[in-house]
Amino acid sequence: MIKNNLLKIRLSLGYKFAKEFAEYLEISPNQYTRYENNKMQPASEVLFKICRKLNKRIEEIIYEEE
Questions:
Q1: What percent of the chain has pLDDT over 90?
Q2: Longest dimension (CA), the chain
Q3: In whole angstroms, how far apart are CA 22 and each of 41, 59, 65, 66?
């Protein structure tokens, strides 16, 4: 199963609220919450946008849970 580290990344960057982080990433807060809770994963275009905005590699954001 594919998971992501968005919650961990958000907190490490000092964002207390998901809504503020979603706005920084230019993503709908509702959609971001689904990503952060691992209810769904971002589409490749959105993931690429997140990577560029955070200056992170894809592997730092998503991973495969065994």
A1: 97
A2: 31
A3: 14, 20, 24, 28
Looking up residue 24, the CATH number of its domain turns out to be 1.10.260.40
- Among candidate residues 28, 43, 32, the one with its CA nearest the CA of residue 7: 32
Q: How many domains does the chain have?
A: 1
- Reply yes or no on whether the pLDDT at 66 is more than 90: no
Residue 49 has pLDDT above 90, yes or no: yes
Q: Give alpha helix (H) positions in the chain.
A: 6-12, 18-25, 29-36, 44-54, 58-61
Residues 66 and 22: their CA atoms lie apart, in Å, by 28
**Domain range for 42:** 2-64
Task: Give residue-wise pLDDT tens across range 11-36.
Answer: 999 999 999 999 999 999 999 999 99
